Amino acid sequence: MNVISDRFLSIKVAAEILGVSKSTIHRMEKAGILPPKTKLTHKTVGWKASTLNQWMATNL
Known about the structure:
single chain, globular, DNA-bd_dom_put_sf, AlpA family transcriptional regulator, AlpA
């Protein structure tokens, strides 16, 4: 696994990768469909790219 695949993705980037809106990302989170996000700062959250890629490979 390389360093680039382990970067953190913002909700905007995650939505673009999944092809959905940010609102849909929020709904998927609330329903427990997406893997948990990581709190980076008190205002910033993100998903590890490798975790999101793995989730997409098994769920889409």
